[in-house]
Amino acid sequence: MERRTKITVHPPNNRGLREVRIGGETVGSVWSLRELRTLLRRHGVPPDLDPDDRSRVSWLGGGSDTWPDHSWRRHAVIVLMVAGLVTGGVLLTTVGAPDAFNALTFAGRISGFLFILGGVTEVAAAVAAVDYWGKRGLTASGAIVLVGVLIALTVTTLLIFLWSEEMEYTPYMWAIFPLCAWSLWALWVVIRGKVWRGTPHPTKIATGVVVTALLAAVNLAYSAMYQPTTAPAKLDVSARFGEARLDLDEPVYHVPVTFRLKNSGTVPLYILAGDWSVYGRGGKYVEKSEELRDRRTALEQGEHDAWRHVESVGDTSLGVGPFSGPGNWYEPGEEFSQDKIVEIPKASEYDTVKAQLKLHVMRMDRGRIDLAAFSTEQYSWDKESVLYCPEEKCHGEFLAYNAQVRNNNNLVNVTRKPRYVTAWWGLGEADSNFDSNISTFKGKGFMSDAETERENKRYDLFTVTADAAIPFADVVDPRP
């Protein structure tokens, strides 16, 4: 390039940029005199050139002192835009990644990947923001920024809506609420600046964004609400006595009992707590039972059965123990059985022998349990144990189990306190007892009955029971 080539600096545009030409070729645009010197040096102009030398430099629409750009304001907008969009990208990726790689349903994984895609779009929008409030080398940078802002506003609005259902503190609040406020400000900035102008096919871009948002919403609703509600959960349980045998050396009958469960539904199931028990019932035979005369007292005590010639003298525990838990899980169609042998003295005066299997169950499509932690026993007699069980729930010494429950939709995890499942199994002086619940307490304390019912409904906790009974005469003299 010849040293005497004419340099032309054009008038500022609406953003304060001045186009620079060397000869007849446009070499760039600049915001300030310092940028002009840098641009000229890159194109071979000596650094000692006097910009006011009219024989070399032609100034149109203002001289070397006309630079209307408010650089501090523009840079502030760039910093705020980039900070908000990058924060949105991190938040969306954090929310979506657990579902994308670990969701139980295909729809849940699609929803997670859509959130990750939204996070990538946010980062791309941050890069586009630097270009749009810079030299605008990309035609579509403004539209990309608009898409990023709309994604941030949509997601934060959704998260705040979910949070408002419980209004519980979570660390994510420190990102969600400021990001929502930022997205409102950013939306005002991009609409006022009409950033979509000059973008090819803006209608198609807007349609693509709307369709993607609707697809994400449908997948979210399907995986979080519809499918867990309509998919049936069913656990079949049974208790069955086998043929008794008299011990060869001792006056004791060995009575086999088989307890069995089978997941006959369509969703995997957790066993939170379970208990098997075998009882012997004694009875006093009379002409007419006194229990028939005072049915009100019997009903108040939960005794709904009445026998005309028998007055019950109570049940005696013959054998108890935990069953398949806590934390074991069963796929649809999977089953499990366990045989127990109960010893009954030959001289016993029971009239009936009863067996019962009772389980607390939770659907796996409502949440996931940290099984490594849940399978670790804690003991009530261990002074360092962090778990607690009130006297009215756990009689005597007990085993306790506790672990965090994560919702299968991570949107819920980030908008609510952590939930924990706690299970107990205790052996009292005459009987066993067990219980389980889901609460916000990590092993200590209990929620109110209304809160407990709400959590049990949310995670679809239910109880299944199977009973069996045989006359003691069948034990003493089994029928062929």
UniProtKB/TrEMBL annotation:
**Residues annotated as transmembrane:** 76-98, 110-130, 142-163, 169-191, 203-222
Keywords of this protein's UniProt record, alphabetized?
Membrane, Transmembrane, Transmembrane helix
Q: What's this protein's name?
A: Uncharacterized protein
